[in-house]
Design goal:
By secondary structure, the protein is mainly α. Helices cover 44% and strands 4% of the residues. α3 runs antiparallel to α5, α3 runs parallel beside α8 and α5 runs parallel beside α11.
Length: 417
């Protein structure tokens, strides 16, 4: 009970808004699953099309294996990684209490799963809908169809090659003699590839998530905010361009009276303001993407999809994973605020949406917790309700991490620590 209380409870309004997020995600996945029971459009085809004459072969990566690798494995890894390595050692040792650490872990876990769920559900819904709408035959469709070659004319729907051959025409799926109606429906669901889109939606998202938590990003100058005032301003290129007190964000050993990392020598140029991440961390973040590439390749090698099917399916998964990641996590870009954190929660007063003229979903009211102290105006005066709480704990409650801009650069999950 003490464990629950120390975390603080957000308002019911905010809680239900996030529950609704999960309801929408699950509903989208459920609708996508329902599309499997709908009869797809069956595009007319030619019996002489060699692109449809490949033999039927079992899948190298079955549907069950796909779910285990691209759905359950990323979810489990996000959970374990968050519990064990988030937040990073710099934050853990110097900035946060035990309650703040667990609040951060729970929020990072929730945000990680929300992004993963959004990526997978969006991909599944779009992929299954497109399969039914386009009705493209698979490369092994003729092997599954078992066409009635003695009555081709009765099933012809178009074509102008009958003078060359009676089979040089377009026929409908009614020519198929197979008794397996389920397999016949599936043979007209080639575009786009579901294995490709799902693998990239789950494993592609995991690659982005690992890159964020391990500090894997393209090098770029990380400067104090006073160095240049806007994004349009060019970064400095020589020592004379820096202020006299500019320091590099290099971690040195903290002392009892110090919480910020500084250098004792001045900056010597923009090339000294960034460095490439360790190659092992690059490899770690790339492993899920490599697995997605392998799964995608098997669909083409097994004659289950055409080349464009797997390419377009991959595009769907990559787009969905990138969109979902950016919805819940800071971008993979070096900067004063990019330190691997997920975005914080919505403010309670903006949990269900904002109107025109409101800048965003975060306001000064924070979570509006019913357990921790908060201030409200009563009769023109502010009163403190509920008890005392440190300023840093209030910031953690809002999901901001209570970190100064200089410290955010060293507060990644600690993969390389």
């Amino acid at each position: 009970m003490h464990f629950v209380d120390c975390l603080g409870r957000p308002s019911l309004r905010l809680t239900f808004s996030y529950l609704l997020d999960w309801v929408v995600i699950i509903a989208a996945a459920g609708i996508g699953a329902a599309f499997n029971s709908i009869e797809p459009y069956k595009r007319p085809f030619s019996l002489l099309d060699l692109n449809l004459a490949f033999p039927f072969a079992p899948s190298t990566v079955s549907g069950t294996t796909l779910v285990l690798v691209a759905v359950l494995a990323p979810a489990l890894l996000i959970l374990l990684f968050t519990l064990l390595l988030v937040p990073g050692p710099v934050v853990t040792r110097h900035r946060l209490s035990r309650a703040q650490i667990w609040r951060r872990k729970l929020w990072e876990w929730h945000a990680g799963w929300l992004g993963l769920g959004l990526s997978l559900a969006t991909t599944y819904f779009i992929t299954q809908a497109m399969k039914n709408l386009f009705g493209v035959p698979r490369p092994h469709m003729l092997a599954v169809c078992q066409p009635d070659l003695s009555n081709v004319d009765q099933h012809a729907v178009g074509g102008f090659g009958q003078d060359l051959s009676a089979r040089w025409t377009l026929v409908s799926a009614s020519i198929c003699q197979t008794t397996d109606a389920s397999q016949l429906r599936d043979s007209f669901r080639s575009f786009p590839s579901g294995h490709a889109s799902t693998s990239w939606a789950g494993l592609g998202y995991l690659s982005l998530w690992l890159a964020a938590k391990c500090g894997v990003r393209l090098p770029a100058p990380l400067l104090p905010s006073s160095t240049y005032s806007s994004r349009r301003s060019l970064p400095p290129t020589s020592p004379s361009d820096f202020s006299s007190d500019a320091t590099l964000p290099v971690h040195t050993k903290h002392t009892a009276n110090s919480t910020a990392s500084t250098l004792t020598h001045p900056a010597r140029g923009v090339e000294n303001l960034a460095a490439a991440p360790p190659t092992p961390l690059l490899a770690l973040a790339f492993i899920p993407a490599a697995i997605a590439i392998y799964i995608t390749s098997t669909r083409y090698a097994d004659f289950h999809h055409h080349g464009f099917d797997v390419l377009f399916g991959s595009l769907i998964g990559i787009a969905a994973s990138t969109f979902a990641f950016r919805c819940y996590h800071m971008p993979l870009a070096q900067g004063l605020t990019a330190a691997g954190w997920a975005w914080g929660p919505r403010s309670a007063g903006r949990a269900w949406g904002v109107g025109v003229g409101t800048a965003g979903y975060v306001g000064e009211e924070g979570w509006e917790s019913t357990v921790v102290g908060r201030r409200r105006k009563v009769g023109g005066e502010e009163k403190e309700l509920g008890g005392r709480q440190e300023e840093g704990d209030v910031e953690m409650q809002r999901g901001l991490g209570a970190l100064d801009s200089e410290d955010r650069t060293g507060c990644t999950a600690g993969c390389g620590a």
